[in-house]
Amino acid sequence: MAQYAENKPTADVLMSSMRSMGYTFEAAIADIVDNSISAAASEIQIRFPVDPIDLFVAVCDNGSGMNRDELFDAMKYGSSLKRGKRQESDLGRFGLGLKSASLSQCRKLTVVSKKAGILSAFTWDLDVVEEKKDWIMLERTAEEIQSLRFIDYLNEKESGTIVVWEDFDIIRESSGNEYAELMEHQSETSDYLSLIFHRYLNKTGTNKLTIRINEYVLKGLDPFLENHPKTTSRLPFSVVIKDKSGEEQKMTVQVFVLPFQKDLSPEDKKNSGGIENYRSKQGFYIYRNERLIIWGTWFGRQRDELTKYARIRVDIPNTLDEIWGIDIKKQNAKIPSSIRKRLTRAVDEAMDISVKKQTYRGRIAKIDENTDYIWDRKEDRGAVTYQINRNSRIFDLLKGKIDDTAWGYVDMVLDEIEANIPYQQIYIDKSQNKVDEQITDEQKAEIADKARILIAMAKDMGGDRFSNIIERLWNSEPFNKVPELKNMMLEEYPDD
Predict the structure, then answer these.
(1) Do residues 151 and 50 share a domain?
(2) Within-domain flag for 3
(3) pLDDT digits (tens, 9 = 90+) for 34-61
(4) Which domain holds residue 372?
(5) How many CA atoms lie within 13 Å of 85's alpha carbon, on the beta-carbon side?
(6) Long-range contacts, stretch 386-391, CB < 8 angstroms, 24+ apart
(7) pTM
């Protein structure tokens, strides 16, 4: 009969390896804020250093706090506090966030908490763990606690918790200027938290959460511009899905289509997350207990020109963490196959709204309906503009090869090209016969090379016959301008 054999992990090796889980600085801070919110805090103060000699980061809250035993357990890797049925408001996941997030950024983590008027504090110091080769924490005495950073904050509160990071070895080794790097992180953290926790920050009354970074009060963003008069939205609808235990859980989905950029004020652009993200961050926004987990993705669905202003809000409870594949860092998720079709409906609704908006903007005039043009001529209330046809076959192939974020940036660059066409100079050059519209042999060779690349991509993606691919391609610009190359391609790529 097999025997039980205890095989404990080596403390210093495991703790060191878990520091490389991939936390960004701002994501690590957000994990600490999650704990504060779960503890029903109404105010959170995040402190960055103001003196280059005295380096630290601290997160203080007025939440429910922990007694000595609860704090001891919370400092344990795989805290037992996360076992069993979780509260609906719990933003934690595995009982690892406090430790793994903190020690991914520093070597020394101190947590002091107050409950029922009693203060308790423990410190994880990697120098001590490496020296002792064991899971050894430092329990702080009452005298030591009163000398800890920002202890006056807790002394004035009925309850609460302070998390302090010290000894930023990773920053020190990578940058050489810890203070300057922490200042950069301060700015990035401000922007990140304003988005991640925007629904908490934008609440009113007793439910409102206040987050300060030093003396600056964070303002929540609004990625859906819900209050903008030209934002279009659908009524939210529910999707029921079974969790791991077979119990039915409800998700809520709502579709928004944002206004055109020309209808945005500078404040609107800022509130939506910045104009650089306005188009690149289209797609799904997944929230877990109103905390943003992942955003700006279509989860593999090909982007479309008509969905460029669409954002879809999906609210899930923490009971669906496993179904959605929420990771420890709470930075990644995936659409469960069981609800993929139902969420596709939300995308279709978004496209329907966008189609109407795009149609309203103007009518595309084509010389030949059978030709796939690179440029579209758009007429809108007597005015003519030119737009790059993002639904052309070339762009379809391109979108199939790059991810959502990359395509968002490509789309943004195309917007700038369209907005800055040198109409006057083109007119002058054309009138003086300086525009050479003849295709040289060198240009023909370049077009042939592009055709070979696109033919191979289309074959790889769709598996269609070469002759059909080539036929469609030669109905597109610029290939239709060199019909003699079509036969050459048909000879190079014969059908099986």
Answers:
(1) yes
(2) no
(3) 999 989 999 999 999 999 999 999 999 9
(4) 363-426
(5) 4
(6) 386/418, 386/421, 387/418, 388/414, 388/417, 388/418, 390/305, 390/414, 391/304, 391/305
(7) 0.70
Residues 197 and 267 in one domain: no
- The answer to whether the beta carbons of residues 354 and 258 sit under 8 Å apart is no
Which strands make up the sheet holding 363-365, listed edge to edge? Answer: 363-365, 375-380, 383-388
Which candidate, 292, 306, 392, 303, places its Cα nearest to that of 349? 306
72 and 162 inside one domain: yes
Residues of the chain with pLDDT under 50: 82-86, 88-90, 92-94, 359-362
- Letter string b/e over residues 266-291, b meaning 16 or more CB atoms within 10 A of that residue's CB: eebbebbbeeebbbbbbbbbbbbbeb
Query: Which residues touch 42 (CB under 8 Å, ≥6 apart)?
Result: 62, 206, 208, 209, 210
Q: How far apart are CA 279 and CA 310, in angstroms?
A: 9
Residue 208: other Cβ atoms inside 10 A: 13
Residue 242 within any structural domain of the chain? yes
Q: What is the DSSP string of 69-83?
A: HHHHHHTSTT-GGGS
The domain tally of the chain equals: 4
CATH number of the domain that residue 145 is part of: 3.30.565.10
- Measured CA to CA, the distance from residue 225 to residue 313 in angstroms comes to 12
